[in-house]
Amino acid sequence: MGVDLNDFLCPVCLDQVEDLKQTFINCRWTQGFWLKVSQWCDLNVSNFYSPDSTLDWIDFKWEKRKERRLIELIFIAYINIIWEHRNGVSFDKKETSPDLAFSKMQDDAYSWISNRANKIVIDRSLWFQSLHKAVSL
Ligand SMILES: [Zn+2]
Q: How close is the Cα of 94 to the center of ligand 1, in Å?
């Protein structure tokens, strides 16, 4: 009887021991997903170092409250999709491509904003093309 080291590996890529940094930043799947999100948001950053530092960066970059809340909401949708994907692979053996996950994240974020922020009106078709086309940031 022994400990199976595979039980500690990231269930998504099986490359590294799973921890927060692996799941949300270093995992190959997460990096592919982040690339899609950063292109859509037109962010000039190749990666981020931790969820904490990203929230600090959001506060710094977007001074206006409305813009900051929008970006924070997208970031929450982003984290949520990574966690859903990780659990889907772990418990249901269900793989989702970064492209499909990205579409779902856009859809989730759009629904959350449309239903919660009644002062923000966003064109749905522009939203899926480019965040900056849909919202003037
Ligand atoms: Zn991984």
A: 14
Domain count for the chain, please give it. 1
Q: Which domain holds residue 99?
A: 5-134
Contacts of 55 (CB under 8 A, 6+ apart): 72, 75
| Residue 11 phi, psi (nearest 5) | -65, -20
Distance from Cα 5 to the centre of ligand 1, integer Å: 15
pLDDT in the model for residue 8: 92
46 pLDDT exceeds 60?
no
Protein residues within 5 Å, CB atom, of ion ligand 1: 10, 12-13, 27
Q: Judge if pTM exceeds 0.70.
A: yes
Q: 25 alpha carbon to ligand 1 midpoint, in Å? A: 9
